[in-house]
Amino acid sequence: MTDDMNIGPLGAHCSAAGGVFNALTAAKSIGATTLQLFTANQRQWKPKPLDQEAIDQWFVTLEETGLVDVMCHDSYLINLGAPSDEVLTKSREAFRQEIERCHALKISYLNFHPGAALKESREQCLDRIVESLLETEKLVANGETRLLLEATAGQGSTVGCRFEELSYIIERVKDRVPIGVCIDTCHIFAAGYDLCTASACDATFTEFDEVVGIQWLYALHLNDSLKACGSRVDRHRPLGEGEIGIEAFKWLMRDPRTRGLPKYLETPGGLELWEKEIQMLRTFAKG
Questions:
Q1: Do residues 146 and 109 lie in contact, with contact meaning Cβ atoms separated by under 8 Å?
Q2: What's the sign of the alpha-carbon dihedral 250, 272, 217, 172?
Q3: Which of 60, 76, 66 is nearest to 32 (CA)?
Q4: Does 101 have pLDDT greater than 80?
């Protein structure tokens, strides 16, 4: 099932508490046509693996709901650019397990934060992220899941807040690993890319195309921002209630570069708010 008016699927990050299939049911209840979820506890290095019963129930529910372009968000613990051998080893193993769960559930996208340069230079961190991704080459070839670098806000030592850093990774892995980008509107705004007006959005996405290539943009996280442009602080707000404002989300629903992409809400407010925001976004697409 896809949205009308030639727009991409719309959804939100739904809870998988009690079983991954519950996230599908929650998404369907708010009129979503896609969703994002955690396939396991995102704050544990070794979460409980999916059993066959859970996998079977997932596919039954997926068929019933008709949702498409499902996205998994990886664990917050993972740092594929970690300077510590211990943390890097644990991160790489946890990332492999994320990929395996995505394959088991036939999930379209695995969204992940690139990593953080905790002790070394940003370039050294980026190189280690590249190495981590290339280690997954044989594994990712076993399924259809695409790995999506999430553009970050640049808090602390996190990398991936500049389009040049996303391009650096993509150029080094694109021929061996299925890769792409998920732009989070709050993140790139906090990182310094203006989205407050239609002309600002056009300029920002034109820059993305010039630096990274619009063909690598596969998905969007839609969030307004509590903090100002360039603040480097990642704090989400409901659409139109933050520093970005509502014009950006109208533009994203209408511009041909972004109109057809799957979009996932992570705004604070839960199912009740997301149902309203999904309907609002569909209204925007009508022009």
A1: yes
A2: positive
A3: 66
A4: yes
The single residue of 127, 241, 266, 275 carrying the catalytic annotation is 266
Asked: is 43-52+74-285 a CATH 3.20.20.150 domain? The reply is yes
259-273 confidence digits (pLDDT tens):
999 999 999 999 999
Residue ranges per domain, the chain? Answer: 43-52+74-285
**221 is annotated as an active-site residue:** yes
**Can 187 be counted among the known catalytic residues?**
yes
**The pTM is what?**
0.97
Paired residues of 222 in beta bridges = 265
Q: Which amino acid is at 118?
A: L
Strand partners, 123: none
Q: Look up 43 and say whether it is catalytic.
A: yes
Alpha helices per DSSP H over 158-226: 163-173, 185-190, 198-211
Q: Tell me, what DSSP letter sits at residue 108?
A: S
Comparing C-alpha atoms, which of 15, 13, 51, 9 is closest to residue 34? 9
| Nearest to 265, CA basis, from 219, 233, 229, 234 | 219
| Structure token pair of residue 243 | 């520093």
Is 103 an annotated catalytic residue? no
Q: How many helices (H) and strands (E) does the chain have?
A: 10, 12
Catalytic residue, from 101, 122, 236, 237: name it.
236
Residue with tokens 């056009």: 202
76 carries an active-site annotation: yes
| Tens of pLDDT, residues 56-81 | 999 999 999 999 999 999 999 999 99
Give the pLDDT band (50/70/90) at residue 48. confident
Q: Identify the active-site residue in 101, 172, 221, 237.
A: 221
Selecting among 122, 128, 162, 187, the annotated active-site residue is 187
